[in-house]
Amino acid sequence: MSTASPNIEGVEAAFWHVDDADWTPVQRQRNADGTVAVVREKWPIMRPDFLSAYVHYDPGMVVRRHGHRSNHIVFVLDGGAWIGDDWCTAGTHIHVPLGATFGPIVAGPDGVTCWELSFGEFGGWGDEQALYDREIEARGVTPLPDPPLDLADWFQDPRGDVGAERGTPRVPGLLETITMMDQLEWTEVKRQRNADGSVSAVREKWPIAQPDFMTAYIEYDSGMITRRHGHFGHHLVWVIAGGAWFGDRWCPAGTHIELPFGAAFGPIIAGDEGTLFLEITNGDFRSWGDQPETFDEAVAARAVTPLPDPPIELGAWFEDKRGYWAPNGQPSTS
User: Could you give all domains of the chain from N- to C-terminal order, each with its CATH number?
Assistant: First the structure.
């Protein structure tokens, strides 16, 4: 794994909140009772080679079985939906690797809200049309024309793509992986002794832990402090519950953070209710510490004593970087 030049001058974290943008309808249907259901999206990031989307499905909305033209992640934030034969509620993590498909997706009676990410070309392509036809017939649903999208010049609308004009990347036998967070055990990764003698911790669950890709479900106890840091890959954070200070910025639930390679954020200080994150790193997920004096100031102000890091067992490939501080502006090869 390369750990060269972690600090890049001028590269900064980008913060966004769900209230910062309006919804854009992207798909519609007429239900059996005459009402119209919609899929709506907000886009913290939309680039030709990457998409981060906040997506809401109205109750009963049906979306075709499909894949994407890149590695794709879906995390259910609220409500629930059938994804194929699996009932998926808040805390469900779905990994759809390039070449796999998933669905049809049928939103439950409360609708469903998700965070979806495509690490590459994000366009979807339909698969096994008969499954979609069966679902809408069973529910008396009539698909309606897709609402127009006025986006960048490079945007090629994928909503009607069924692989007729462009071959699909389908890999026979390759399947999506659905993981419920309550199926995984917590692993403590950071600890501190507080001024009152109690111990706070950071705990993580890892739906995916690979040398070049990680998704982590992370819980901070109230008042927990972690250093200002960056990662050796493209890093994304969604604040699911509670809130935390990232440096001088308060980030409540619904905050989306992009941390490009070369940038750092923090120190992170969990609020009074603690906080819950989903973090995703495309590339080497390990961290490098930045500006150690900011961490020293934060723990001193709260009379916190950092405790030794609990051991982590991820595999022979894993080299622990939790104690590594990058030389500011200097290449790192360790």
Answer: 20-180 (2.60.120.10), 184-306 (2.60.120.10)
